[in-house]
Amino acid sequence: MDIKIYPDPVLLKNCVSVEKVDDNFISTVSIMVDTMRAAEGIGLAAPQVGILQRFFVCLDFDDENKEKTIVLINPEITKMEGRIESKEGCLSIPGFYEYVYRYEKIEIKAYDLTGKEVIYVPDGIQSVVFQHEFDHLDGILFPERMSQIKKDIFMKKINKEFK
Asked: What domains are defined for the chain?
């Protein structure tokens, strides 16, 4: 499974809801997790591997700093609060990083691989990761979250590199 690199047009498209979680879907998710790990990423959204469906995978760490993988299917952000600035990068725009403002804390409702509704309330960096991956499902890349001046400069750099 290959990660799509900017300016691949699939990265700018809106995704449709996942209608069915079957063995093929679960296998795809497993391959996505392996792809994310191989790329040393902390999140990967379906459109980044050419799948125009609303789901993403990401890493989370529990209170004992043990890593676990989260799969969010058909996610919806239901609450947002605060503001945080963090340096973001993207597996689809390799080698480029910039500061972006996001909500410090969100509530996100989704479904897991068993079809059970789950609610996460991440804050800090985990909130940033969830929002970044969620944006991919709507065809939004992280430079869209920058001020216009900053975005223009950043896009000139990446367009020079990737075109």
From this structure: 9-162 (3.90.45.10)
